[in-house]
Amino acid sequence: MSLRCGIVGLPNVGKSTLFNALTASAAAGAANYPFSTIEPNEGVVPVPDPRLARIASLAASAAAVPSRFDFVDIAGLVAGASTGEGLGNRFLGHIREVDAIAHVLRCFEDDGVTHVAGRVDPVADAEVVETELLLADLQSLEGRRDGLVRRVRGGDGEARAMLSLVDRAVELLAAGRPARDMTLADDERVLYRQMQLLTSKPVLYVCNVGEADIAGNVLSGRVETMAAAKGAVSVTISAAIEAEIVLLEDDRERGDFLASLGLERAGLERFVHAGYRLLGLITYFTVGPKEARAWPLPLGATASEAAGNIHTDFARGFICAETVSYEDFVACGGEQGARDAGRMRQEGREYRVADGDVMLFRFNT
Question: pTM for the complete prediction?
């Protein structure tokens, strides 16, 4: 499954620097002026998971393939984007195509880096972007309402259900609340996703601090308070420092540099994991002589869905999933040890996969 997280924010908050660090490249041209990023850059980022290396070692796998995250660097939004200001409509369209939003907020003071509003206020910046997404959603819903009303008059039951959702969403958005705050019945979720609302996407607030404030500062503290009030998550990193870390190729050198900063792990690792959790994902593993691989899966997904994640034929001809927990796999010294100890079990297609499950799928072709 391909997962895409859009990096958004006002111009000059450090989005492209963060993206470059994430992808360990200079693909996104960071520059000190608005709209240095016009077309969205995309990069594939591995999800760090020390369990994968341990599994691969025990199985003597030739390769270890981590789960992956696709990040999209979307050009800076400005006030009025919903009515076409800046490069508004194109940017909003790019946001519509991602699964989650990483909202980068400037939490550093630097007279050498201009701010489009002439002041540094990350909470106000967050409100600007959120307002533009709210307005864009309102315009989208109001534009489709007349057509739904006509279909309802013609007796279209699905249009009636959609119109009810649209009216509830409009009421919520008009009150300044995002669509993700809507309370939905299970049978409404498919129609809700068809609405493709920008404010329905989960948001991770990324506080970009200066190199001297890697532990956070007053500005990042304000963002954390705002995020908590919204029931959202925030993470504090220094994009400039992360850009330096990725240039260090030796693991020991990287570890020494992190230690000198008082950090146990890079901010990017925390950021990627926060994004992973934001989408409600867990990781399961497959293992063999050629490769050990980590796979992303929504929490609560079944064994047949996990099989289909690998190949549709696995789900179509599903027989069972031979499963062992990561802890038992390691404690027993690998697959054969787990079998000998009776820790390997057979699960059916409706089994709910747990984080860390090591799975072997049996299927008919």
Answer: 0.81
The single-letter code of the amino acid at 315 is A
Distance CA 67, CA 45 (A): 9
139 token code pair: 């315009």
Buried residues in 193-230 as b, exposed as e (16+ CB within 10 A): eebebbbbbbbbbbbbbbeebbeebebbebbbebbeeb
Each of the 365 residues of the chain gets a pLDDT tens digit; together they read 667 889 988 888 888 888 888 876 434 333 433 333 445 578 888 888 999 999 999 999 999 999 988 888 887 665 554 454 444 456 677 888 899 999 999 998 877 666 666 688 999 999 988 998 999 899 999 989 989 999 999 998 899 999 999 999 999 999 999 999 999 998 899 999 999 999 999 999 999 999 889 888 999 999 999 999 988 889 999 988 888 888 887 778 888 888 888 877 888 888 888 888 888 899 999 999 999 999 999 999 999 999 999 998 898 899 999 999 999 999 999 999 999 999 999 999 999 999 999 999 999 87
